[in-house]
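Input/output pair, single chain:
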Amino acid sequence: MNMIEPQTRAVPANRANDVDRYVGTRIRERRVMLGLSQQQMADMIGVTYQQAHKYERGINRISAGRLYEISRVLNVPITYFYEGLDGHNDEAVEPRQRMCLELARNFSAIGNQKHQEALSQLARALAVQE
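Output:
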């Protein structure tokens, strides 16, 4: 009896996969935490806005050199982009943590002291209602 080996489809080297999408998500999270727009990050790493968008969506793969540049711009080690990939990392940023960091960043950007105080009072009032 002649056994036929099952055919496996090789994923082309330039095609993104789940890891690429995960890394892209981590890039986006960090960029948002730092308050950078996609255009600002694209300019900083020397690519077009469209390319930066494709990196974050995991549509295009990121070369080692480009990932190094992104890690430098976002001020994190390259390993940051892979943290939590295996599902065992307690340091992975949860959506709620990201929202809190973004809120703190935006609060700090408010230049008017009275507006900051009003927002702080609003947050306290809403917290008591829950």
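Helices lie at 18-34, 38-45, 49-57, 64-73, 95-109, 113-129. The radius of gyration is 20 Å.
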